[in-house]
Protein 1
Amino acid sequence: MLSNYFYPLNETFNRSNFPGDSLGSVIYSNIAERNFPSFEGADIAIVGVSEYRGGVANINSKNGIDAIREKFYKLKIHLNSRSIIDLGNLILGDTLSDTYAAISTVVSELLSNNIIPIIIGGSQDLTYAHYCGYKKLEQIVNLVCVDSRFDLGSPDDGCNSETFLGNIIMEQPNYLFNFSNVGYQTYFVGSSSIEMMNKLFFETYRLGHLRTNIEEAEPIVRNADFISVDISSIRNSDAPGNKNATPNGFYGEEICQIMMYSGLSDKSTGIGFYEYNLDLDINFQTAHLIAQMMWFYIEGVGNRKNETPAIAGSNYLTYRVPISEIENDIVFIKSLKSNRWWMKMPVELSKNRFMSQHLMPCSYKDYQQACANEVPDRWWNAFHKLS
């Protein structure tokens, strides 16, 4: 029973305490002396995890999660809202590994019931535990981290908030197909780390590159099974509640736009928000922003197009682009419903364990690049991993 994994919330989060047009009035929460929320009909589950033993420098009080939750519950409902349950705050294990195991169990159980977990952390090493939830189901995954750094560490390092990605990459058996970083800042990332990402055919996108055209983040997050957001990727003026916050980063409006793109993706089945520090927050500004980021993600989920470009139909256009550098044409698919683009990867679906990756989200710019007789980087990276 998952109910044994959670502390119930206090009466502050009782539905009767919120106006009828607010999210708090419709969220089925794990309140003391009431029944644990039923999974039946639920689309999204909020999971609070105040685990900071894997954090580096950014240690927070356990009350930070409820500060975010309080702001979130007060936000307004819209027509396409999905059914939300709140499981409460996870009971932490005697060791950090015990907490990881509990998170992976909760995530795998929610995924098995087609429920999207939204994790409010906690330090960002909990991303590793989130990944292990997919691993339990033997599911190949794509991970996107919104982060100013890569968090690779070295092979000998244990798992913490600055090394978790290296631990995921080294995990055996490995179920990570693709990793993408959104918003790294070059002065925080060494050339050796960038070289390693290139050798692994992972995708990395500088903050400056995305801020000139935030729409380019859409195909990146559309390819993600789950997303990990480090609050330090947002500039200090917009999100001061983080010890690692710096003057540069995404603006609040930009990060919310990325969250909307993430929720709109039919592929997205989970997200986590990490590294919030209540003790450093000014007027709960960061808690407000995280709550709004959650709102935009859920709003995106409610407005999904349920597109299946693998099935040919009148809602899609197909373009074949010959390129002299490769043997076969690159096949592009455009949705007439959403104007989104995909590239069809040359993979034998019946024999490849990565068969779910044969459609690669892309942008109109990728199509233009192919028309100019240049192979898009996204296509090359996916092709090398599929070969």
Note: The first strand starts at residue 6 and ends at 7.
Protein 2
Amino acid sequence: MSRALIIDDEGSLLEFLSLLLTQEGHEVQTAQSVERAREILADTSFDLVLCDIYMPDGNGMELLVEIREHHPETSVIMMTAYSSTKSAIEAMRLGAYDYVSKPFDVDEVKVLVQKALEKTQLVAENVYLRKELEQKYTFNKIIGKSRRMQEIFGLVERVARTSSTVLIHGESGTGKELIARAIHFASPRQRQRFLSINCGAMPENLLESELFGHEKGAFTGAIREKKGLFHEADGGTLFLDEIGEMTAPMQVKLLRALQNKTVRKVGGSQESPVDVRILAATNRDLEQLIREGSFREDLYYRIHVIPIHLPPLRERREDIPLLTDHFIRQFSQESGLDARPMTAEAMRILEEYAWPGNVRELENLVERTLALCSGDAITTRDLPPQLTRRGSLTQSASHLPPEGLDLEAYLDQIRADLMAQALEREDGVQTRAAELLGMSFRSFRYYARKVGIVGGDAEPD
């Protein structure tokens, strides 16, 4: 449904045009003064504005300039009872879509409105597609020759042709959003919008507003009506990242939306239908969360229609050279640097490293290493110390050096190393990192502060 604003000081004309456009299926607001039009435009965006040139409290041409400046996506049709070629030329020069003289021919107005709205839609689609094309190179990051990744690529291709809900599971940094984007752009919905939101990155009330939208005045700070992501993605795909972090009340509201295929804005009373494909992702064990009572079983089965598990990078080490070469080429091209090769010894260290941050960590490391490398090739000297240190610890873990060692210091180093990896894998959440290592939270916090992994003074457990 398109949204139109009609601005004219003649009440009968406003009533006529409002009825005409409403019958054509558009949502219409009206204003009888420039001042009132400015108030409405400050709160609401429109696809189309029909504006009289001569108003008692201002000039419609001035309002046209303001609309073009603050709402460039909106098509504007200027109206006047004084047919003038000069006014028509001036209106077009200032950015009006077209110009119409009173009295109107009804069919002419209908055609003009339809064409203006088609232009608005085309502009919106071009903006969206341009943004997506700017990001589309990231699909190339879904690289892998390993058997497990080839199986995933085949599954993605089959899943994309359906409208089924997909749950993508994997550790942080494995590329869950890239897989979601690949599904969308290989699907029949590829010409519609792909929108994403991190469900664990914002408080519950803000998440509800982002997903479902809100009415003006629904809460403090809601100074204007807002569309939610469900409406924005209508006809397309909505990606719910880290869905395992969603609070229990939000789980209930999401489940209702998925079951009924309708949403209600915060502060609103009307349910409106939406056609959105849901792709969800998590790095949590949702079945364990169900057993703990923190995730709804009915919501789990609603989103767990087709599961896709992304393996961590350490379980597909044969992909590391391929990914590394890709990132070297990518960052060299983006930064204008020479694409320096990586020596066999440096690559061996990368292949032996555990990669707690997965592909994202490898990507960041390659970018940093390439920027700081001063030689003709990337060698072990260019790698960060934690890689070479961890590699030597792995190789010598069960071998006593001829010169002996400080066992306590050695074990402390291994403990600190594994704790740092656990924190990185669990996005800095200490409780989950402690669980990963089988430690109590208090013990983990004590040792983490002791070795400086996290801030604060160490307090004995």
Note: Confidence is low (pLDDT under 50) at residues 391-398.
